[in-house]
Write a structure and sequence with these properties.
The chain is α+β, with helices and mostly antiparallel strands. Helices cover 37% and strands 24% of the residues.
């Protein structure tokens, strides 16, 4: 798993290039968010599989990471007051940050990054 985050970051960078997103601030923020969400999925869950997805429209980029969740006795970050340092940084540099937990404990956490005006 120690290579998963750099690989996720690299592939996200390739996707951003393919989308023609040349704005340095948008790219930096997107890669920071991707790195933090993937890291949290690896470090704070029992997941053996995580899935990262980037999508965009005219006004924003949505980055989401889905993990398999924690054991039933553990708390998810959204059930604990406040954010950790990394998610606090993500919340501060994105337009929105949210999560959804399925009945089986699988979690999707997502953030949106505003795209630069043309």
């Amino acid at each position: 798993m120690d290579r998963a985050v750099p690989v996720c970051r690299h592939l996200s960078g390739i996707w951003l290039e393919g989308q023609g997103l040349a704005d340095r601030d948008v790219r930096y923020t997107a890669l920071l968010v991707t790195t933090e969400l993937a890291t949290n999925a690896i470090v704070h869950t029992d997941s053996t599989v995580i899935i990262a997805c980037l999508r965009r429209n005219r006004t924003h980029l949505r980055i989401q990471v889905r993990d398999q969740g924690r054991t039933a006795t553990e708390k998810h970050w959204h059930k604990v007051s406040g954010f950790g340092r990394g998610l606090g940084i993500v919340a501060g540099c994105t337009r929105e940050l949210g999560t959804h937990v399925d009945d089986d404990g699988a979690r999707t956490i997502w953030a949106t990054v505003a795209l630069a005006a043309d």
